[in-house]
Amino acid sequence: MSGELFKPEKDYSKDADKIIPEAKELAKSNVQAAIDKLSLLEKQARQASDLATTSRVLIAIVTISKESGDWSLLNDQVLLLSKKHGQLKQATTKMVQEVMGFLEDTPDLETKLSVIETLRTVTEGKIFVEVERARITRYLSQIKKSQGDLNSATDILCELQVETFGSMSRREKTEFILEQVALCIERGDWTQASILSRKINKRYFARKPKKTPEQLEKEQKEYEERLKTRASDEPMPEKDESVEDLKLRYYEQQIILSKHDQNYLDTCKHYRDVLDTESVEEDPERLRAVLARIVYYVVLAPYDNDQSDLLHRIHQDSRLSQVPVEARLLKLFTVHELMRWPEIAETFSPHLTSTDVFDKEQNPNEPDAYTRWQDLRKRVIEHNVRVVAKYYTRIQTSRLTQLLDLNEEETEKYISDLVTSKTIYAKIDRPARVVNFAKSRDADDVLNEWSSNMRSLLGHLERIDHLITKEEMMARIQPTKNEKVKA
Predict the structure, then answer these.
(1) Which of 3, 301, 325, 353 is a Cys-bridge partner for 265, taking CB atoms 3.0 to 4.6 Å apart?
(2) What one-character-per-residue DSSP string does 332-384 give?
(3) Residue pLDDT, tens place only, 241-293
């Protein structure tokens, strides 16, 4: 069958050694005659399953066509040779790879596009040249983007399902997907960008332990050995190399996507993944910038169990000492104490608004910065409501508005939002102007609590009784010992 590894029925290598130079010499005066001469040898070698000779002849034909300057002839020959009955797959692959190298030598853009389309036609639907098709398509996409046709560039590149390509290295697959996501983001197709980004397994970016020079040398030798023993139709062996550059590109895109969705908690998690990178840890300036943004986005995230747990874990990170202002802001959210927004704004606004994350006024260049500033105020107020709910069972509305630095309408709105999200329990009695934070309980709940408290109380009494009895016994024994000493 076509493309399988056969033992050649006949070796035409000696014929090729003689005919190929003759054909190249003949091509100087008559290109078509040279191609016809090589075509006869190609047919004989192909029918005899002589892969080495067939590959040499195909490369010779396309090279002669290219050197003649007739790019239409080259396109015709590539299409013709790829459609030959029983054409060997590996020979076709080598021919396509050779023609791909001619792209930089094309005289103009129109010629280059014609060669690219020819190669895309030849490689369409053929698994054995899927990697070459992907690279050609990527090249075409880059040309379209340079021409300003972003939609075509995105559509062309996103038609590739590179995650299914078995012969492509993992690194190259990741680079392709990252480029697809980048084009979708640039076009504003956020849904497609999010779908494509999920094709990348984050475990690929897991940080690897540092290796000794001996281990690196051993791995290099093993890699070279795999290269030597690799069959011609097998994919290139994977080399254990750093993927830190891909990791940073991936999380940069994830941060852009989560910011667009205003998903602050995910943004914080992505920055934490960026922090777990050797190049960031070794650069003090980048380290401080990433730490600051981790704090900003964790306090901006709406309160829930996940956010609370992450906030306290970040608070325990010793590296926060490098960003003291952010550390003080974070600490305020970890303690059950009221924060007055006017004081918070006065204390932290000069520092926070100096970054690109917050802005106290609408900025057309960074419209989300003002939104984040308003969200920070919202999180401070929500924190204060939770603190009040913790320490009060009932409170006058006038007193609550005073504690929260809000008017009655805003106070009701924030309480309603927190009740809706099931963060707190509260009922507002408007006629009585009272907010009740105590959850109503039926008789069974009250009785169960009383019974539990009584068991706890009796347990404490029993423990105290044992301790008193023990002390009394020790007191009786002590004089007896003293009397024995005197005796």
Answers:
(1) 301
(2) HHHSSS---HHHHHHHHHHHHTTSSS--SS--TTSHHHHHHHHHHHHHHHHHH
(3) 778 899 999 999 999 999 999 999 999 999 999 999 988 989 999 999 999 99
